[in-house]
Design goal:
Elements lengths: L2 H8 L10 H16 L5 H12 L7 E7 L5 E6 L16 H10 L3 E3 L10 H7 L6 E10 L2 E11 L5 H49 L17 H13 L6 E4 L6 H11 L7 E5 L5 H9 E2 L11 E2 L1 H4 L4 E5 L6 H13 L1 E2 L8 E2 L3 E6 L3 H6 L5 H7 L2 E4 L10 H16 L4 E2 L1 H9 L5 H15 L4 E2 L12 H5 L45 H15 L6 H14 L4 H8 L3 H10 L8
Parallel strand pairs: 6-13, 6-14, 7-10, 10-13, 15-16
Antiparallel strand pairs: 1-2, 1-5, 3-4, 4-5, 8-9, 11-12
Helix pairs in contact: 2-3, 2-6, 7-8, 11-13, 14-16, 19-20, 20-21
Amino acid sequence: MTELDSLAASKPAASSQRIQLSEIALIGVYEISKILTAPTRLETTLANVLNLLSSFLQMRHGTIVLLADDGVPEVAVGAGWSEETLPHSPLRYPERAIGQIVATDVPLVVHNVADHDLFDANDVAVLASDGVKVSFMGVPIRAGDRVVGTLTVDRIWDGESVFRFDSDVRFLVMIANLIGQTVKLHRVVARDRDRLIEESHRLQKEITKLQPTPTSKPRASGIIGESPAIRSVLDKISIVARSNATMLLRGESGTGKELFARALHEMSPRASHAFVKVNCAALAESVLESELFGHEKGAFTGAVATRKGRFELADGGTLFLDEIGEISSSFQAKLLRVLQSGEFERVGGTKTLKADVRLITATNKNLEEAVRNGEFRADLYYRISVVPLLLPPLRERSSDIPLLAARFLEQFNEENGRELAFSKQAMQVLKSCYFPGNVRELENCVQRTATFAADDAIVAADFACGQDQCLSATLWKGKTSADAWSKPIGGLGPFSGAPAPAEPYRETPQPSPRALAPSSPESSAAVSAESQGEYFDGAGSDASERERLLEAMEKSGWVQAKAARMMGLTPRQIGYALRKHGIEIKKF
């Protein structure tokens, strides 16, 4: 309850004693000044002022209209205004009467709106809809020397004296002056806020221009994986892509060498030109020469027209030679000349041609051993191995298996109209597999399993290894050492020019995929006989056997069954070997 309400409640009725007008004005100004200083939205503040005025001016309606800088009404607020009701019931006010107040800058008093020409029929219908006589009072709202709006009220005319009208107008003028100062302050604050926002945006743009553009992590289409091993390879490729250096991609079969070669091309300045690929192992020497260098019409039987070679087709772009280790010695000399001078002739031609080509080669062969055995030219080896890069096998990026498997299954679903998905147990089976064939073998496994899946959810029992029918286990049966390409040859570490340590190189047995499949009595017997001969036939020293056992047990967290799978043995054989070498099982 305001002080005005308390005062009105304590006074006798109007018929016995009227509240002194000066006392009302003083209390009203005090209460309204408190409203105007409250930190609220301007429209809400003005509506609260009108609500307070209605409590002692006996008004029916009240409006406050504020004008924009061009004189057009910008804000119109009435008593009881709220943000929820405004869009649904726009405020109507007597426009001609308000226009006169703004134009003349003097208050307007009308005893009966129905008899005045400033109010049309619509205005009368709104102000005096019940047929009663309604009086109208309006005063200008000033901010400095400008009129920024109007304050108007209307009430039933009961024949009150002119003196009452004059006192109410003087009171409204005081309130209008307070409102004008508040409006001026709000507009100054709004202008300062807009100016600061604009300045902030300008400074932000300037800072953005001065800051170096952040380099995003390298991305390439077709390469799936977020493991540190893949991220490291992509980071190196993004660096090498900026130059024209010849690159040699090395890695086991199925690691995706072609995808990484394409990624290097896409990240390089040559991305807008052609990416041409040739599998050197799939073509005979004579055919390979024609494919790479082209041929003239009539150069050989079947050469019915002149044909450009892959070097010409890749001019300005990238040429990818896969299985570079399989080309013959005679063709190595021809290729070396092209790499040294950039010049070549078509088969059957005499004109020397040149091509601007970025060369990327790939192999899963141990080129160092081939050079030592005289199977590969050393000068060609140094020419193509300017920037060697080893691609990680799938077993070194097992965290990428779920992503790869999900992508392969998605492709299968798209091609076959299925909606298959891996169960949690099925994904665990994939993550625990060794996959000697790497990504290519994983894709084969997913497609085969999805083909035979009976339900929409692929479970662990759907995999071939769960049925003792794993083709990979048969293919890699008996493989106990790393592929030849990964061995250090001639005192060199794998894929590096650094000398190997003085310590003799020791092969680490690779686990066989068959060890991951559930064992049957027959398979266990076969494994037992074979593994016994491989690991404990006395060919190696007891010290080397003990070291291999300790290494497997430490890697498996001293879980015998897991160590057995890693070494391609049965748990019974692991137990026998531990007892033989006196290795005590650690308990955690």
